[in-house]
Amino acid sequence: MEKLLIHGQRPLCGQVSINGAKNAALAIIAASLLADDIVTLENIPDIDDIKNLVMVLEKMNVRTTYLDKHTLRIDSRYMSNGCADSENVRKMRASYYLLGALLGRFKCARVAFPGGCDFGVRPIDQHIKGFQALGAEVDAKGIISIQARELRGANVFLDMVTVGATINIMLAAVLAKGTTVIENAAKEPHVVDTASFLNSLGANIKGAGTDVIRIKGVQKLHGSTYAIIPDQIEAGTYMVAAAITKGDITVKNVIPRHMDAISAKLKEIGASVIERDEEIRVIGCETMKPVKIKTLPYPGFPTDMQPQITALLSTVPGTSIINESVWDNRFRYVEQLKRFGANIDVEGRIAVVDGVDNLVGTEVEAVDLRAGAAMVLAGLAAQGETYINNVTFIDRGYEQLVNKLNAMGAWIERIDSDTPIQIMQEKVI
Ligand code: EPZ
């Protein structure tokens, strides 16, 4: 195991190239199982969640080959059946996409319950509602087992906007007989990217990116070569890094409109945000203003940027309010932020942040992927040294985070977990 040692208070200046979107790549890798020929995926991020999903596929006799670090070839023509029950499945939430893909291809699926970051209850009832509407029988006791004599198009009105269920129902419907309509669908960029990928295989999906998606079932799907979109959350994390260190960072290889809500909020806080075709430059400022934020499904402010923006607002004088409307328990990391001296009160889904002049380096835990990123951001801004344990969470979703930050002036070291730590005692008193 490793931990990070961050030497704080160094403004970050320079540029950073953004990798492919984790949450698009995970869905699209699963979707590749629906093709009856080879699929080549470009701009795949080199992160642990992807490697873990590839291992699950390998155990199902899918042949995967990395043509280079970011290009993956998937040949599922020799797959044995629709079973994916391994400890790798339990490591992440995105394993649930195997349900839709295997059901769509084999008309049956057996997948262990997915794992993933702990924000409280993470049900899959809407996924199951969609599969049942298409004609499947679902038994979710101990393992998720689904089967269908035949899949027929249906109308599904989702009870809430859910990325996972929207994508999973698309996966199950593309080879069904007839047309499926998903209403109250999620509109995230990774939902659109997955639909675009499926259409590149010969699927007939219209309306992705709106709240009504129509999937006209086809007989079969051929192979294709497809490039994953850039990661909006990785980009947003570096945009906040510029603001919290009062630096000047250009995030490159991005689709700026995917970060519109993040850019708008950073401008409201006082940072300068300059957009060009495929890049966004963020320049921090000395005097920042407190704001109110409510996380919402796309195009609202993304919940996956909530811990990162809260770390920033911890250093902004005045009172900011964060309303987490998507997850019922996504403020677990606040206890860790308080170790830096942050002044935050949490009541259910609301956090009230009274910004402090300085955060002070300390030892913290990364309690989940985006919380880990928030700890890094706080450490970059804090006086003295910060140690972050559970780096594996961060490695699940960020490629080369330490190297990318150090290339812009940060001083971060990856050290062995049992290295003794020296927190600046005089600062703590
Ligand atoms: C995806 O999770 C992302 N993960 C999450 O990102 C992200 O936070 C989330 O979407 C929201 O944008 C991946 O794409 C792998 P949801 P998902 O279904 O699909 C409720 C990260 O950091 N719900 O959109 O699991 C659910 O409890 C991760 O990259 C049901 O009630 O999220 C939540 O309150 C963390 N029943 C809300 O809907 C269901 O059947 C949104 O969940 C499904 C969801």
Account of the protein in words:
The modification 2-(S-cysteinyl)pyruvic acid O-phosphothioketal is found at residue 117. The protein is an alpha/beta fold. The model is unreliable at 425-429 (pLDDT under 50). It has two domains: 2-19 and 230-428, UDP-n-acetylglucosamine1-carboxyvinyl-transferase, Chain (Alpha-beta prism), CATH 3.65.10.10; 22-227, Enolpyruvate transferase domain (UDP-n-acetylglucosamine1-carboxyvinyl-transferase, Chain). β20 (343-347) and β21 (350-355) form a beta hairpin. The chain has helices spanning 22-31, 48-58, 97-106, 125-133, 163-173, 189-200, 232-244, 260-269, 306-313, 334-339, 369-381, 391-397, 401-406, 425-428; strands spanning 2-7, 13-17, 39-42, 63-68, 71-75, 83-84, 108-111, 137-141, 143-147, 155-157, 179-183, 204-206, 212-216, 224-227, 248-252, 272-276, 279-283, 292-295, 318-324, 343-347, 350-355, 363-365, 385-389, 411-416. It is globular and about 65 Å long. It is built from 14 helices and 24 strands. It starts with a strand and ends with a helix. Bound molecules: ligand EPZ. Ligand EPZ is lined by residues 22-23, 26, 93-94, 117, 122-127, 160, 162-165, 186, 303-304, 326-327, 369-370, 397.
